[in-house]
Amino acid sequence: MRIVRAIRALRQWRQAPSVSVQRIGYVPTMGALHAGHRALLQRARSMSDVVVVSIFVNPLQFGPSEDFAQYPRTRAADLALCRDVGVDLVFLPSTEALYPADFQTSVTVSRLAQRWEGACRPTHFQGVTTVMTKLLHLIQPQWTVLGQKDYQQYVVIRQLVKDLNFATALVMCPTVREPDGLALSSRNRYLTPIQRRHAPALYRALRLGQGMIRNGQRSPQRIQRAMTELLQDTPELTIEYIAVADAGTLEPATTIRGARLVLLGAVRLGSVRLIDNILVRAPR
Fold this sequence. Notes:
Layout: E1 2-4, H1 7-15, H2 17-20, E2 24-29, H3 35-47, E3 50-55, H4 75-85, E4 89-91, H5 95-98, H6 117-120, H7 124-139, E5 143-147, H8 151-163, E6 169-173, H9 193-198, H10 201-214, H11 220-232, E7 237-246, E8 260-269, E9 272-281
Parallel strand pairs: 1-4, 2-3, 2-5, 3-4, 5-6
Antiparallel strand pairs: 7-8, 8-9
Helix pairs in contact: 7-8, 10-11
């Protein structure tokens, strides 16, 4: 497994004749890798001749009061997991390499990034789309593998790829969960034992909404209200949003019948922020 830190070295590797003819699968990460990341890497490995992983805690996608300094950094364990899965190259850039002192450019996807996560974290998606533009430009993968847990991020990156004509196909992998339904996340390690017991409430609320849709409920407002009430039964949770949205546009759903929907939510348990979603195809 090759480890590359410099942009120049990455470019030299990518332009080598032995690499340029290979099919590259790419998994962007911020490190603190877990079983959910392993599933993404395994999917990339199954599709590709060469698997590339980037590990970069991107400061641009953290707001001024968010947890950039506290975000877990587990470099040795991350590299061991990559090696175990059979990753070919790990790109480990420094902040100075990607954002030198005179860096002035940002990339924005407008409408899709405004609601939900975008409303709660106003600078987040601009940071995501800026760094992804740079990474896709440098790595030029045939496939980019992303997780469903960050569904809005997936939709935003899909629009970025379309609008800027990147020659990569996005692959979305299902969310990996604990036995009680909690979506795996690098931040879960910060939950106290009591918070950990309450954390699956978000998934239970989403499952409640999913069940209502499958059982014929046609009112987005009633579904949202039921999910909200379930979360309110856990007073330790602070609700940031819980919603029924169109899976393509991310706009609040106005109709249920036959629609492709995403139920999505974000809550806080103390200082730990959890997000989750479920995709649902409503019956006609």
